[in-house]
Write the C-alpha cells for this entry.
Amino acid sequence: ERAKYEGVSYLAFSETLATAMFGRYELLKDLREAILNNDIVAYFQPKVSLKDNTLIGFEALARWTHKNGSSIPPDQFIVLAENSGLIDKLDQQMLQQSCKAINTLKSMGIHVPISVNVAGNEIIRPNYFDQFKALLEEEDVPNEMIELEITESQFIKEKSTINKHLSVLKTLGVRVNIDDFGTGYSSLAYLSTLSVSTIKIDHSFVWRMEESEKDWQILKMIIELGNSLGLNVIAEGIETEQQKEHLLALGCGDGQGYLFAKPMSLEDTINWIQSGL
Ligand code: C2E
Ligand code: MG
Ligand code: MG
Ligand code: MG
C-alpha cells in the first residue's frame, strides 16, 4: 500500500502496468463505462480528534473495481478522468453517495460531516454551485454536512476565480479543506486570505518527521501558523502511535490514517462505528 505513495517508481510501474494490462485507450473506455454505470464506489475514511480518538467526520475516496476483477488505484484513474472530462460526473457521484451515507449515519444517530475531493477546475466552473445545491437539496442534506477538499496546487491556478468561488462556498456554509498541504509551494500567508477552514498536512511530512529534522521543523511551523490563523489543522497518513503522539505534542488537533482506520465501504464503516471505534 505504501509503495503507492512513493512517487516516481510507482507511477512508472503503474503506467506500465495499466498499459500492459489494457492499453491507455482501453482503460479510458472502461472508465467511461464504469462511470456511466455508476460502478465507482465511495469508501469512507474516518477523521478523528487526536486527543481522545473521537470521530469528527469522514473523507470519501473513490474505489474502482475493474470488470476483470482488479482494483485500479485512484492515482491512476482520477488523472485519466480529469484529462478526459469525466471527473465532473465522477465527483458528482461521489458527492451523491456521500449524501446518502450522511443520511444513513444520521438514522443511526451519528451526525458527522463527510468531505469529498474535488478537482480545482470543477469549482471554478460557473454552474458548479447550482449543481451542488440542487444535489444536496434533492438528497435532503444541509450544506454544512459536506466539506470540499481541494489540493494546494489547485489554489495557485486561477487565483481570482478560486477566491471568488471560495467566498460563495463560505456563504453557503460549505467548509473547504486545503488538501496535501505543504507540497504545493504556496504561502500559508496567501492561503490564509482565502475562505478556507482547514489545512490537511500532507502525509509525506508525517512519514518523514522522525527521520528528518527539517521536516519536523516545517511540520511544527505549519501547525503553529495554522493554529494561530484560526484554521483547523489535520494530519494525513498517521500510521503509528508514535506519530500521533508527536503530532499531538506539536499542537495538531485532528488526524486521519491507517492507525485509526483505512477507507471502508459504507457497510464496513457502519460495522466499524458499531464496534465502538
Ligand atoms: P487524498 O485526498 O490526499 O487522500 C488521501 C490518500 O491517502 C488516500 O489514497 C488514502 O487511502 C490514503 N491514506 C490515508 N491514510 C493513509 C495511511 O495511514 N497510510 C497510507 N499509506 N495511505 C493512507 P487514495 O484513496 O488512493 O486516493 C489518492 C488520491 O486520489 C486522493 O488523495 C485524491 O487526491 C484522489 N481522489 C480519491 N478519490 C477521489 C475523488 O472521488 N475525486 C477526486 N477528484 N479525487 C479523488
Ligand atoms: Mg483528500
Ligand atoms: Mg491528501
Ligand atoms: Mg493526495
Notes: Residues 1-13 have pLDDT under 50 and may be disordered. Residues 87-107 form the longest helix (21 residues). Residues 192 and 229 are 7 Å apart (CA to CA). The two ends are 23 Å apart (CA to CA).
